[in-house]
Write a structure and sequence with these properties.
Elements: E1 5-9, E2 23-26, H1 27-30, H2 35-46, E3 56-61, H3 67-80, E4 85-93, H4 96-105, E5 110-114, E6 126-132, H5 141-153, E7 156-160, E8 172-176, E9 179-184, H6 188-197, H7 200-209, E10 215-218, H8 225-235, H9 240-243, E11 244-245, H10 266-274, E12 279-283, E13 290-294, E14 297-299, H11 301-315, H12 317-322, E15 327-330, H13 336-343, E16 349-352, H14 357-364, E17 370-373, E18 377-380, H15 388-405, H16 411-422, E19 424-435, H17 437-453, E20 463-464, E21 467-474, E22 477-478, E23 485-486, E24 491-495, E25 500-505, E26 513-523, H18 531-546, H19 548-552, E27 559-560
Parallel strand pairs: 3-4, 3-5, 4-9, 10-11, 10-12, 15-16, 15-17
Antiparallel strand pairs: 1-7, 2-6, 5-6, 8-9, 12-13, 13-14, 17-18, 19-26, 19-27, 20-21, 21-24, 22-23, 24-25, 25-26
Helix pairs in contact: 2-3, 2-5, 7-15, 11-13, 11-15
The structure holds alpha-D-glucose-1-phosphate-6-vanadate (VG1) and cobalt (II) ion.
Cobalt (II) ion is lined by residues 96, 117-118, 284, 286, 288-289.
């Protein structure tokens, strides 16, 4: 136990409730006196049994502004609460998937990840703190609720007084009075893991046989730069000059929004089109998201996970050996993966609320191998977070495999083949960012009242633009492993042809409210329409039924995916 511990009196601070993925606020909020300290102490207070005494935790983040300060606070408060061993990425750097992998590999008791993911960084922007449990995944709601309760009751926190500051820049072990700190290479263990999962040899071979194949990876100045360089260039042999973009992690992500979608990653999209890139890819600030595209196709994340599931046991060594234990998606994600499950006779198929934390229990129980979210999240049970680089390498592995059998191995041909077999789930998402929180709440209340009306008829049976409403509900999930219940996870309007519209408020924004509308329609006859054209009548229905303009004053979405 640490000798020099000081107790600092404090009082609860409002609003320290973790959202979809940790506590995310403006940096300025975290910098307020006691703010970060209170929350970090609340994590240790609520840490699942046996608690922090003599525990080992992994700490690291996406390199954003304020991360180093937060790491020193975590060491100080953690050691004072009994943590005996901190495993920290060099310079504090760990991508979210690498942190998850490290927690698992080193059998740590948990981890703290410093990131606000795809939210912009820098002094005027966002910071975030997320607690992960010993399986390497985001804490479930029972734990995040306990953290929140602790933050509402806090009256003091403990700090350690150190003679020398921990040096984050030197790989190796450092001993302090009562605890130790181990600084690790953030990339090494992660690369070793991917080497075991994928057929690197096949991809290298493919690259040699197809020297004109162009890969372009954009880290959006986030944490994945060093990972991308190591894997795409050093391991797989792609050219550093032409294949990497924005691969140096910056504290403010170069002023960009490190969110891999068509709006915020537009420089990548433009380069992919201009240079006729065969596989364009990006990941977000903390490296758990991914976007896949080519000069003639954009792969929706819902399709991406379905395609990976389709090919997994044919060509990805990890799944060849484990088989597919089950598949899953978040509720708003399109049902493309359900069709793969059906065709392959996979009965273990789950629809969970938004947020990766809901997949962890299923994986731990051996009932889930591959899963995804429409929000550019794809992953598997190799770790307990979504994994951006994993998804990109999965695509390379699949392309290399397809190229052995056919000369049509472009992203576009792979997608069209997939639709030929399964039909197409057209999908789009409209985001309205930073809308007035009050208006957004009122809109949800309006929609919810329709769900309750269902019992009395309500809009059931009403026809909008030719689509007849079959059902309206508010998604509720009962975890099949621990029976915990999550209510109010999204309003769904489901039509008789299985088309649907889903409404949710974001749980990761830091300012006002973000309204998300998800729209989906299945078609097995016309598979190569433009998605926005195919979905236009449903988009109109969504706007009409929700009265979005009336409640929020917004005419246009901020982002369309
Ligand atoms: C969003 C996405 C969700 C994702 C979450 C965290 O949440 O919709 O699918 O799991 O971000 O991703 P929300 O509540 O804003 O819709 V990340 O890359 O921020 O860890
Ligand atoms: Co992220």
């Amino acid at each position: 136990m640490v000798a020099s511990v000081r107790v600092v009196p404090t009082a609860p601070i409002d609003g320290q409730k973790p959202g979809t993925s940790g506590l995310r606020k403006r940096v300025k909020v975290f910098q307020q006196p006691h703010y970060t300290e209170n929350f970090v102490q609340s994590i240790f207070t609520a840490m699942p049994t046996p608690g922090p005494l003599n525990a080992t935790i992994v700490v690291g983040g996406d390199g954003r502004y304020f991360m180093r300060d937060a790491i020193h606070t975590i060491i100080s408060i953690g050691a004072a609460n009994g943590i005996s061993n901190f495993i920290i990425g060099k310079d504090g750097i760990l991508s979210t998937p690498a942190a998850s992998a490290l927690i698992r590999k080193r059998q740590a008791d948990g981890g703290i990840i410093l990131t606000a993911s795809h939210n912009p960084g820098g002094p005027q922007n966002d910071f975030g703190i997320k607690y992960n449990i010993r399986n390497g995944g985001p804490a479930p709601e029972s734990v995040t609720d306990a953290i929140y309760r602790a933050s509402c009751e806090i009256s003091e926190y403990k700090v350690t007084q150190l003679d020398t500051k921990v040096d984050l820049s030197i790989v190796g072990s450092q001993s302090f009075d009562g605890f130790s700190v181990e600084i690790v290479d953030p990339v090494q263990d992660y690369v070793e893991l991917l080497r075991e999962i994928f057929d690197f040899e096949l991809i290298r071979d493919f690259r040699l046989k197809n020297p004109n194949f162009k890969l372009l990876f954009d880290a959006l100045n986030g944490v994945t730069g060093p990972y991308g360089k190591r894997i795409f260039v050093e391991e797989l042999g792609f050219s550093e000059n032409s294949s990497l973009e924005q691969c140096t992690p910056l504290e403010d992500f170069g002023g960009c929004h490190p969110d891999p979608n068509l709006t915020y990653a537009h420089t990548l999209v433009e380069r992919v089109n201009r240079e006729h890139v065969d596989l364009g890819a990006a990941s977000d600030g903390d490296g758990d998201r991914n976007m896949i595209l080519s000069h003639d196709w954009f792969v929706t994340p819902s399709d991406s996970v379905a395609v990976i599931a389709h090919y997994a046991t044919e060509c990805i060594p990890y799944f060849k050996s484990t088989g597919i234990r089950g598949l899953a998606r978040s509720m708003p994600t399109s049902c493309a993966i359900d069709r793969v499950a059906k065709a392959k006779g996979i009965t273990s198929l789950f629809e969970v609320p938004t947020g990766w934390k809901f997949f962890g229990n299923l994986m731990d129980a051996g009932r889930l191998s591959i899963c995804g979210e429409e929000s550019f999240g794809t992953g598997s049970d190799h770790i307990r977070e979504k994994d951006g680089i994993w998804a990109i390498v999965a695509w390379l592995n699949i392309i290399a495999y397809v190229s052995q059998k056919s000369s049509n191995f472009s992203v576009r041909s792979i997608m069209l083949d997939f639709y030929q077999q399964y039909g197409r789930n057209y999908f789009t998402r409209y985001d309205y960012e930073e809308v007035d929180a009050d208006g957004a709440e009122k809109m949800i209340t309006h929609l919810r009242s329709m769900a309750y009306l269902e019992k009395d008829g309500g809009i059931i049976g009403a026809v909008f633009n030719g689509y007849e409403v079959a059902r309206v509900d508010d998604f509720e999930y009962v975890d099949p492993i621990d029976n915990s219940i999550s209510k109010n996870q999204g309003l769904r309007i489901i039509f008789t042809d299985s088309s649907r519209i889903v409404f949710r408020l974001s749980g990761t924004g830091s300012q006002g409210a973000t309204v998300r509308i998800y729209i989906e329609r299945y078609d097995d006859k016309h598979i190569d329409l433009d998605a926005q054209v195919a979905l236009k009548p449903l988009v109109d229905n969504a706007l009409n039924i929700s009265k979005l303009l009336e409640f929020t004053g917004r005419k246009e979405p901020t982002v369309i995916t």
